TrEMBL record:
Pfam entry (one): Pet100
Name of the protein in its database record: PET100 cytochrome c oxidase chaperone
Membrane topology, from the record: Single-pass membrane protein
Organism of this sequence: Papio anubis
Family affiliation: Belongs to the PET100 family.
Top-rank taxon: Eukaryota
Gene Ontology biological process terms in this record: mitochondrial respiratory chain complex IV assembly
Subcellular location: Membrane; Mitochondrion membrane
Broad class of the protein's primary localization: membrane
Gene Ontology MF annotations: unfolded protein binding
Amino acid sequence: MGVKLEIFRMIIYLTFPVAMFWVSNQAEWFEGYVIQRKRELWTPEKLQEIEEFKERVRKRREEKLLRDAQQKS
């Protein structure tokens, strides 16, 4: 029984990664499901909010760096 079990486990260990690689490289599936889902989740309004947030964080960081540089001078 031990040899048969080991052969079965080896088949599973080899088949699963190969199957996942094959599924993830199906262009039609990727375009149809993943890209459509991404468009649903990341609407233009959300992307605009994220960009505004990034800009606020950059501004704060620059202001802090300027204040620190002026205090050291």
